[in-house]
Amino acid sequence: MSITWNTRVGTSADEQVLRDITLQAFGRQYEVDYLDALRAEPATWIPELVCVATVDDRPIAYALLTLAAVGSTPVLSLGPVAVVPEYQRQGAGDAAVRAVLALGSERTEPAVVVLGHDNYYPRFGFRQATEFGIHHPQYDGPNLMALAFGDRVVPAGLLTYSVEG
Which of 13, 16, 94, 151 has the highest count of CB atoms within 10 angstroms of its CB? Predict the structure, then answer.
């Protein structure tokens, strides 16, 4: 059975359901606390860059972008991305990620970074961040990836976040 996912921008009314999806998807409180910390940081939280995938108007998955920096250049950071377990591997996460990346590409930041599964995010065009000259102070492995928006120049340098995950 193939599901056609509807996506929309998240609203403040989704706050608790996104926390619930996060807990179900990751199975622990750590990622919920990280989501709460992101939301509480006005310098990096961008409410219009939260996309929700729904089935029968019920949120099943979400992806969000927040502000980070490479050197002194603002970039976007993808994550968390979470899907209710019974809907995983059915395209809900893909739909949410594609929707939020489309919204992010309309902004001025030249790129998106993600710390995630290196076999999942390349389908969206992500490549290892070190190929762009982006480095994390603690991790430069294959799970740190970046995506350029169109032909924009991706900055090289040290990646920093306002909220560490």
Answer: 94
